[in-house]
Amino acid sequence: MTKPDKLTLPLSRDLLERLARFQEVELQDVEMDLGEVELDIGQSQGGANPALLSRMAFEFALIRDSASRMAQLLGGGFPAGYAPLQAMAPQALAPQPAAPARPTALIPAKVTIPKGDYVGSVVEVKLGATKAEGGTRSASYVIGGERAPAFYNFQSPPPHKPIIALDVFDWPEVRLSKAVKMHFEEVLHDTGEWARVCVEKYGAEMVNLHLLTIDPLIDNAPPSAAVKKVEEVLQAVDVPISIGGCGDPKKDLEVFTAISEKIEGERLLINSVTLDMDIEKSARLIKDHDNCVIAFTSMDVNKARELNRKLYDFVPKEQIIMDTTTAALGYGLDYAFTVMERCRLAALKGDPELNHPLSSGTTNAWAARESWMKMGPEFSPRELRGPIWETITGQTMLLAGVDYFMMMHPAAVNALKTMIDGLMKGERPADPADWVTLKVGG
Amino acid sequence: MPAKELSPIEIYRGLPGTNCKDCGEANCMAFAAKLVNREATLEECKPLLDPGKAESYNKLWALLKPAVKAVEVGVGDNKLILGGEYVLYRHEFTYFHQPAMAVDVGDEMGDEEFETRVHVLNDFSYDYIGMKLSLDMLAVRSTSGDPSKFGEAVKKAAELTRKPLMLCALDPAVMEAGLDAAADRRPLIYAATRDNWQKMAELALKHSCPLVASSPMDLDGLKSLALTLEAYGIKDIVLDPGTAPTEYMGANLDTFTILRWDAINGEEEGLGYPLMGAPIAAWTAPAEDPVLHEWSEAQLAAALITRFTDIIVVHGISGWALLPQVFLRSNLYTDPRKPVSVEAGLMPIGNPTEDSPVLLTTNFALTYYTVASDIEGAKVDSYLLVVDSEGMSVESAVAGRKMTAETVAEAITNSKVSEKVKHRSLIIPGRAARLSGEIQELSGWNVAVGPMDSSGIASYVSDKWKPYPEG
Is A436's CB within 8 Å of B225's CB? Predict the structure, then answer.
């Protein structure tokens, strides 16, 4: 005897209404040998109790499940098309009053705007010094001061705009992606000129000078040479600057000391102090010369706290920025994002050891192979893929709460600035964007 | 109740307490812990499915249900879940369902453009640490306002892709024509508005399709619409608060953040639904060059992926713009409870022999998986020596002195790699080049500086690697 594959039981509205009046429905003298049960409940307009229908579907599935198991016990195996029970998870069964009449007009409602009951706030840090402030810069910037998570403008808009700086290296051999290098080809051998191009041509608000030639494994240049380089950059540009070392804890401190002693009043941003440096010496140096410092740790909230705590013994909080490491999109950005976000939220909840402006080495985006690698035509050109990789890496960190960006590609700087401007603006558009009927493309 | 505050004890109280082990756990408490972590579902507890336990079941179900409803679109293997989220910030628990990415077609597009766009949707794929990054949905827009044109476009779309569809038209007559062409695919209907909601609700009920409630830049109106649709009997709702071009990004973030905050922490009625964003709105802003539109759209999409959307509609289909978007959602929807590092030690890849190369890397999970999958993909039989860098990538580990000549020499000794291979030649990552001399000195191994990126390992090994010094 051949059986049809499928039986569809139409449940009439009348039957459903009757069923809905009972707490329990018992099926008597029913014999079932089912491969597939389909309850066509889509057509049932009105009347039927949806929770009951859902429950019925579930009960049917139970029956089918038992039948299948029995079949299996008897050696018959699972019927074809058997799906596990959880695929039909029931809706919660609330005690069901008769279904209310359908609304004929919109039900008025009001959305609660969540209040930010934050007890903490981020300290403000001033970078650079104008002539009036004892330095030579044309502008200085204040960053930090947030009283709400990043761009929760409905609670408290950020009091200061995040600042974007471009990286400048004092070593022409520095490894740069092609998409980046093409913008700096002419100035690789002239540190001052490189800095000037960053500010005048590419709109950098600050310059991050990285003193790579002091590296004992590169040129091992003496601190006096580093001082010269800093002076050169200060001559070439009038924006505040940040001074980065080579990563050797001893050498960096020597160089930072020489620079701090020779160059007074500029409120430099020293990049950076780490847990394996002589913290007392470094910290006193920052305080004594009234500079600022980036406290750098590697993606660990507790280490960030530990470093700050150690610095507090010697430096006022208003001179400290935190950097908990930025990893590239695709290569740890999620960790980097979450550590920064946790630091910021903790600060707002009142953690007194994490309430500093945040800094991001967004240039790290170029460590992702997808930012520079030659790929198939469908992912080309890399001249766009690279800078957008850096942009989205930076933008994601911006939404975690970052206040200071160290970047590499001019287009990425531009794009992130546009995003920041849009975020700082409280306005709503006059008309909603109609994209449904928009005619784009052919 | 927000997921972060739920304890296994609360769940345990509602379980049958039989310790029957049917669920595969040692006892009910262990099962409760799995439930709290959403690593198990209530249906795995057979005794709980007894009709007599309905009350306990319902109570547990309510405790465990996500704050943002899981809405299904599409059918069969291509079914997608939108929403189903529990927390505002990923570190509070984890996010579960990556925002779906829909690309659009219009009912007035030429055949070639229409088909090209659907093929990009179908074929876009990128291998990333063992995952395939791809696109999810096709949004069919009625730009004509003509029901028969829309019906034809939807029919064509349904033939060209098995991925779920989203039908976009605000005129119910047009929508009806579209639904008639693809109702069996359970498409997402866009959209019910304050003007057409009743007719759209009827269509959604008739065809059992999820429905977007759209109220651009009017949050109260959106909630009002959602509550009305709920009362009308619509169960699967998606909320569209409107997306403005990047210029108004502050307003965009405000709306998405308020809605998700209220759904999770405020437990506000009518808002516990997936959120829809439309980065395609970037194309409505003036720009001289389509590249600028596409770039701006990618930024808008990335911001909305970061801030809580569950489905986005984009127009740009260039790989350079889509790739960072699919990477970002994959990253942010990775479970933050997973460890950052893998175990250090010597890992054989393929079937290495005593003449196979030995390569060095760090134990940062992403670094390890990237390098290992590159070597496996290139079928280079080798040993991978994984140094404990406290979970840092090669570049950061070298700069931060978490990988030094000392730790590498130690790893060589501890791994007993010298018993596995006859040669004494170690390939180190190009990014660790500065350590080469010191490693050679401390370990006594010959050090060769490999490529800057592990994608270059295969050609490096075949062209340059010589395990034994010549002569």
Answer: no
